[in-house]
Predict the structure.
Amino acid sequence: MGERKKPTLAVFKFASCDGCQLSLLDCEDELLAVASEVEIASFLEASRAVAKGPYDLTLVEGSITTPHDAERIHQIRRVSRTLVTIGACATAGGIQALRNFKDVSDFAKIVYASPETIEALGKSTPIVDHVFVDFELRGCPVSKKQLVGVLSAWLNGRSLEVSAASVCLECKRRETPCVMVASGTPCLGPVTHAGCGAICPSFRRGCYGCFGPMESANTASMAAVWQSIGATGPDLVRAFRSFNAGAEPFRRESEVHEQR
Amino acid sequence: METAPGADRYVLDLTALNRLIEAVREAGYRVAGPKVRDGALCYEELDPDETLPQGVRDEQGAGRYRLRTGGDAALFSQAVGPHSWKRFLSPPEQRLFTAKKDDRGFRFEPGAIDDGKWAFIGVRPCDLAAIRLWDKVFQDGAWADSAYRAIRERVLVVAVQCTAPAGTCFCLSMGTGPRAGHGFDLALTEIGNGAPRFLVEAGTPTGEEILALVPKVRAGPEEIAEGERRLGQAETSMGRSLDVDGLAELLSRQVDSPRWEEIAVRCLACGNCTMACPTCFCTTVEDTSDLTGSTAERWRRWDSCFTLGFSYIHGGSVRRTISARYRQWMTHKLATWHAQFGETGCVGCGRCITWCPAGIDITEEARLFRQAAEAVPAPRS
């Protein structure tokens, strides 16, 4: 059997903290296997060497926040056979999507000495608002296990085992008693996309919604449950406006409680 | 109980009960029982130095559970906790097989089957009924499951008849409790005032063998009467009830009811009810592979009919709306289960009510469906 040509992998970053890319470097045990199965063509967090496209698989981290980036993502899409976005920034606009609820020029005036030199878009948007995305991997940050799962599914040409159901299923499978029912702790688990393995409730904290809305998030009912255990309108606005503030169901629900 | 009063019943004190558990261990069983963790009474493996919690009382309502500890010395003055015994009989995540590529093709290795012997201490009558339902499906049915069977046939059941039902209990309506009936090796009834005391009876030869190793006294008429009194009291203090008369047919006629939409306003489709339900047995199967494609694994995981993936077939999910998913769950449990398995799929444990974050109450929903079905249109004036 002749040596097959290894597929090429590229990783690109937009507005983000680099944490999701670091999840890839954090794979440690699997990293050598990744390196042996793919040719890493572009991954600035790992190496300065950049090979030209096209790339077989491109991972994109970060959201679109500048006119320059809005152009750059189209160039990346053109040279990518398969494009997978990773993390809350790339899939929902990230924490920086908090700007979407305000006037970004007001922030620029406060922060920068010469705000006229700042070219920022009014909204932080996910990659899928700009180009076709083959798959979105959620999380702030993404789960290392799911990231490796995506890579191995892609390398082996099989379907993914990424569930879009609630965090509650993960809680129940790991035998964590419900923090909301057993101690009245507000938790976003019932409306949040699984994937983290239900970490926070296992430490008796409510879910923060790092993986964004689950497949059929009933945020209105979730808000009513929170209110029944004492949450106020501002509490709800803050809860739905974190890393996935720009995700549609969370954005809508946060606005409902802002108006009150 | 058909036998003469007290004929085969004995009284144990706490020391004797602990000796009984010790005898179970000595017979080679791993012991699982109630344990307070994270504000709930969980069924977990107990280490030899761990004793059963005392003075634990629960308060259960729709979407609400609170434990109070440090009360009296009683062991079983509470109802069921969040987890049922199904996690021991069919673990939430189970590797079915591993396939490894070698120069001749694929080599299959079966997943590890739990070859331990489990003793379940403190199985409540509702959960006994749930285990009987699972046995019907996975031990004896056309879809018998070898992994389930391997674990199940070695299980020793020490039941506890319920003397303190919770606010969400309705086993009396379902005919599953608070008395244990059958399906246990040993059954306990707490009768102590102050110092813990228990009536005990054996249900199988294995139970009798264990009981023979324990110091005990034959139960007297007063002790038998005290047990009966407490069970009678439990029957009158069920927090909820469900009128099952004609319920399956009634629900089957409600497929197009607008009530499903009303429930869906509150239903989170989170799947908690199905995970907490002791009879819900649905699983999904997922294949994984390593990066090099040389090793693949097949995993079975607990699944829920509340996920979109559950009804995914070619072209998409069949039950896209939350109302369709709640309807599927409720009508399966209370109606179509009869057609499938010849009885109801609900044992009245109340977990789906307590552990629903939105507090949706299956007994209340059933009552409203009955009310709607029986309502006579008001005459026009």
User: Anything to note?
Assistant: The first helix of chain A runs from residue 19 to 25. Chain A has twelve helices and five strands. Residues 157 and 259 of chain A are 48 Å apart (CA to CA).
